[in-house]
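Memo to structure team: turn this sequence into structure tokens by end of day. - J.P.
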Amino acid sequence: MDFTSPAQLVGYVAFVLGVAAFAQRIDWRLKLLVATECAVYTLHFYLLGNNAASLSAGLSTLRMFASLKTRSPWVAAFFLVSNIGLGAALATSAMSWFSIAAGVCGTVAVFFLTGIGMRAVLFLATLCWLANNILSGSIGGTLLESIIAVVNGATMLRLWRGRRSRPKAKTRGKRF
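Reply from structure team:
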């Protein structure tokens, strides 16, 4: 395996962007950095010859940018149908379905969830990408998803601890 091929070098760039993304506590920053990472991933998987993963990463780029502007269920449905339909058309093996599942999880996460819930479903997407990357021979991608799993888990823990340490609002005797 050539650790310095153009495909692997592009994967290393995605690695740096992905780690920076999942260290973010603010949702919009996470989405912006993930969108950029996905754009780089698109090229990476194209160079590796994994067209289903390249398509899924490309759709993820557009999806993340769209989710910064809207949470419309219609836009989410467009990305879900596109990911499944186009992914199925390009799928050449069972391995291809890992990237498609990752795209579906990512769509649900960024359009319908926030905070810890969004990160938990993105964690599932990370596991799907990890399986895809191992099977694709993506060195940077495998490192990326492994580190993202750890960083995202630590960020979820920090958010959960932060939420637990804040005092609950008092209702001053009012009933709702």
